[in-house]
Amino acid sequence: MSSQIIRAQKKQPPEPPCLISLLPDEIVVDIVARVPRCYYPTLSQVSRRFRSLVASPELYARRSFFGCTEQCLYVAISKDQTSDIHWFTLCRKPNGQQFSGTASDHRLVHIPSLPPMPIQGSYVGIGSNIFVMGGFCNWKITPSVSLIDCLTHTAQTLPDMPKAVAISVTELIDRKIYVIGGSDTLSPLKSPSRSMMVYDTDTEMWELRTRPDWEAGKRWFSSVVIGGKIYMRTYYNSFVYDPIEDSCVRDEVLHSKEWSSSCVIDDVLYYYDVRGNCLRAYDPKQRSWGVVKGFEGLLPEACKWSKTVSCTGGKLVLFLQKTEETEIWCAEIAVERREGGEIWGKVEWCSVVLGGNFHIMDCVAVEL
User: Fold this and answer.
1) Where is the F-box domain (predicted)?
2) In this structure, which of 114, 157, 198, 272 has its CB flanked by the most CB atoms within 10 Å?
């Protein structure tokens, strides 16, 4: 009997090869380009061919051609707000599968191939790239500029800024990066720099300008771009800078709230007020503040800091950390304006995405 079983086993036909592996490369690229990126880590484990494919520029070019690009969040994290920056990305398990060791299907995943970067630098996302400018490196102000390629998770150096600064107002308008003020001393609590630097991402050239005396010597806490203008806040005032007219005016209504770590959706500024445990919204057209309604009690309370970043589809992602805990929470919130002008929000999901005593310095959205 045993010999018959052995002969039967020997007669079994070999397992047929995977059909997709028999297709021409261009056909495989077209197929994989239509697959959501959350499946790419699994595909990369199939074979060397797929591992190379999911990191190839050709694949992402086809994704762009088919309109299959997705917005991905990259998060700059420091362990204690004084150590170097390490980069994480917000990942989702396909089909709601759970990550081991957590009840959530979302988590922040460290990107080990990216080198540590200066603390208190500035970050701007353009397409699939992130520009990292200035900051403190070994407790020295640096003018260095790095470009992170989020397709390959590699970094390269670019020409230095004309002036070394940290903690600047840094925003993107018409493919030009504006770096305003910032600390040019070893004191991160002050902002004595009177400079304004503009980087043209098309010509890859820097321009150094002298800015007017907007709160010289004060630290900038937050900035956003609305309608081609830069909205920025210090402890004492909030300003609106128009780069076309090269004018800067004070906005007292905007400054009536301690807004920081903000984002913009449909020309409305949003920030999470950790003291009031609410999401606030500022409409610059109406010049008025409001509170987003509809999700009271659905987010963690008693938090010590928050960060927001806007996403496609009228949504924002909110990061929070409770005062007595070390875990970082994350929530995705869809916002909409209803009849009467009220803004309502819906929590799509909310969960712990990272354990440990870490601090999120900034969040950047890129297209992949």
Assistant:
1) 17-63
2) 272
